[in-house]
């Protein structure tokens, strides 16, 4: 995932997993650390993304789960 924009093998693997995943459930991309990666996985049809592009990991004790 981290090298999806520079590796044909990584690109093909993510594309294949995304296609297979849609038969089962929604697809979540991990390790999305920059806009280029987000753009690529979006074009491949990934449903959700997580990674440093959206924020740093945090302890669950610090997570505010109240609806706003």
List the helices and strands and how they pair.
Blueprint: H1 8-24, E1 28-29, H2 35-43, E2 48-49
Parallel strand pairs: 1-2
Which key features would you list for this structure?
single chain, 68 residues, 2 helices, 2 strands, 38% helix, 6% strand
Descriptive account of the structure:
The chain is mainly α. It is 38% helix and 6% strand. It has two helices and two strands. The protein has a two-stranded parallel ribbon with strand order 1-2. Strand 1 (28-29), helix 2 and strand 2 (48-49) form a beta-alpha-beta unit. The longest helix is centred in the N-terminal third of the chain and has 17 residues, at 8-24. It is globular. The chain starts with 7 loop residues before the first helix and ends in a 19-residue tail after the last strand.
Gyration radius from CA atoms, angstroms = 14 Å
Q: How is the biggest beta sheet arranged? A: 2 strands, parallel
Strand content: 5-15%
Q: Averaging pLDDT over every residue, what do you get?
A: 90
Number of strands: 2
Question: Which blocks of ≥5 consecutive residues have pLDDT under 50?
Answer: none
Order of helices and strands: HEHE
Work out the oligomeric state of the chains in this entry.
single chain
Shape: globular
- Order of strands, main sheet, comes to 1-2
Number of helices: 2
């Amino acid at each position: 995932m981290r090298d999806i924009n520079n590796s044909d093998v990584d690109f093909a693997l993510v594309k294949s997993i995304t296609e297979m995943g849609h038969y089962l459930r929604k697809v979540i991309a991990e390790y999305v650390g920059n806009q280029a990666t987000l753009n690529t996985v979006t074009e491949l049809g990934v449903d959700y993304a997580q990674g440093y592009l959206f924020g740093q990991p945090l302890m669950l004790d610090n997570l505010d789960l109240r609806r706003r």
